[in-house]
Amino acid sequence: MKRTVLGRILIAIGVSAWIPYFALKLSGTEVVVAPFLIAHLAFIIPGALLAPSETLIQKLARRFTREDDQIVM
User: Which range marks the domain in which residue 36 is found?
Assistant: First the structure.
């Protein structure tokens, strides 16, 4: 399995950690955020390290590159 695929899977699991939180919250149950945040970060951080994407600066540089002396937007 490629690093980027594994990273994206970990990110998806980390994001889905909030589904039970919001389900419990909507049902009116008093919910503690800490366990869900820990689970979220435990998957998101390694996933982000395994599946690096372009940084914001790289995206902006690519978007505002000059072609024929005109800014592409």
Answer: 3-71
